[in-house]
Amino acid sequence: MAETTEKPEDIDQEMAKLLAEMKTRKKLVPDYIDLLRKGSLLDRTKSAEALGEIGDKRAVPALIEALNDDSTAVQYLAAKSLGMLKDKTAVDPLIKALESEEKWVRHGAAEALGKIGDKKAVDSLIPVLKDDHHDVRAHAAWALGELGDAKAVPFLQPLLKDEKTDVQKEAKAALAKLQKEKKK
Q1: What is this structure's pTM?
Q2: What angle do CA 138, 143, 146 make, to 5 degrees?
Q3: How far apart are CA 39 and CA 53, in angstroms?
Q4: Which of 84, 153, 87 is nearest to 118 (CA)?
Q5: Which of 22, 107, 130, 171 has its CB 3.0 to 4.6 Å from that of 141, i.e. a possible disulfide?
Q6: Any idea which fold 117-184 has?
Q7: Taking a C-beta distance cutoff of 8 angstroms, is the pair 55, 81 a contact?
Q8: pLDDT tens digits for 78-117?
Q9: Closest by alpha carbon to 70, among 92, 45, 107?
Q10: What residue spans define the domains of the chain?
């Protein structure tokens, strides 16, 4: 059996090729939007994911609607795709998604808000730092670091002693980023 010895840069190049390939599918966006709205669960999950990867902002309204889908998986993928599209019209619906009972929806919304980069989300992300789920806390900390608002500092500092190392790591990185922003 042949052993594969792919280097990390090979994997990065392959991922870049795949994403470039997805961007060539813009003509399929209306079909993906239709499937996201009316398709089976599999169609909706695949469409929610593809629409973010394609990168066409025509998908934003349908992805915002999908934040209210019956399926947690569709909601999560819609949030992630909205983050990939970085459209500020998604900020308010994503802030609302931070209140979801589903941890994966909160997780996706926090990540998306960090990627979009609108400081309007800071006040809504701060309470998420106390979420029961460590991965949600970690993503909220990461997002606050991305948003670059120093008002998050006193809320991030206690996370340096969180019981979970992923939360500690993201809080430390966010605080370092905020300190760097402060010096600019």
Answers
A1: 0.86
A2: 130
A3: 19
A4: 87
A5: 171
A6: Leucine-rich Repeat Variant (1.25.10)
A7: no
A8: 999 999 999 999 999 999 999 999 999 999 999 999 999 9
A9: 45
A10: 26-97, 117-184
